[in-house]
Write a structure and sequence with these properties.
The chain crosses the membrane at residues 32-50, 86-108, 120-139. It is found in: Membrane. This protein is mostly helical and 169 residues long. The chain is built from seven helices and no strands. The chain is globular. Residues 153-161 have low confidence and may be disordered.
Length: 169
């Protein structure tokens, strides 16, 4: 017989170590990335089953990118690799995904008559909204960061301005 684990014991290693922490799953960013991944996968499956199979590459790429960022943020890779400005990369990914999903959803709904294409188009419009919400939130974070960065060092800007004035003389 196995003995029950004490209440404060750490979970055993195994598949649970691959799951993201509960705090990240409950966060707004975690939920948005999870929704983007799930929607992109559903859209990918719909395009495979439809006459509009030529559109399947965009949802596949967005699924893989959202899944990568989901696990990167969950495992805190963004804190380990400081060379990449993660919010900017995430913002650009969300903007391009929203535009691409909107365009291919219009094409899938208007040009193709089968049910799978129509379903992919409807899920694409939903994904457009989810990606737009994500890039709006990420944009607000970027603006806050840039305002903090520009107001932190006014002395540095003065010395740069003085250097450029002396060079032009």
């Amino acid at each position: 017989m196995e003995e029950p684990e004490p209440a404060g014991a750490a979970p055993p290693p195994g598949l649970r170590s691959l799951l993201p922490p509960r705090e990240f799953l409950c966060s707004r960013k975690g939920q948005l990335l999870l929704a983007e991944s799930v929607l992109s996968f559903i859209i990918f499956i719909c395009y495979i089953a439809s006459l509009a199979a030529s559109f399947m590459m965009a949802p596949l790429l967005e699924f893989l990118l959202a899944l990568f960022l989901f696990f990167a943020y969950a495992s805190k890779l963004n804190e380990k690799f400081k060379g990449l400005y993660w919010p900017l990369a995430d913002f650009l990914r969300c903007v391009t995904a929203a535009i691409i999903y909107f365009a291919i959803s219009i094409a899938a709904v208007s040009k193709y008559g089968d049910g799978a294409s129509k379903a992919a188009g409807v899920f694409g419009f939903i994904a457009t909204i989810v990606f737009a919400i994500d890039f709006y939130i990420t944009f607000n974070d970027l603006v806050t960061f840039l305002k903090q960065g520009s107001s932190d060092s006014p002395e540095g800007r003065k010395s740069e301005d003085e250097d450029s004035d002396s060079d032009s003389d």
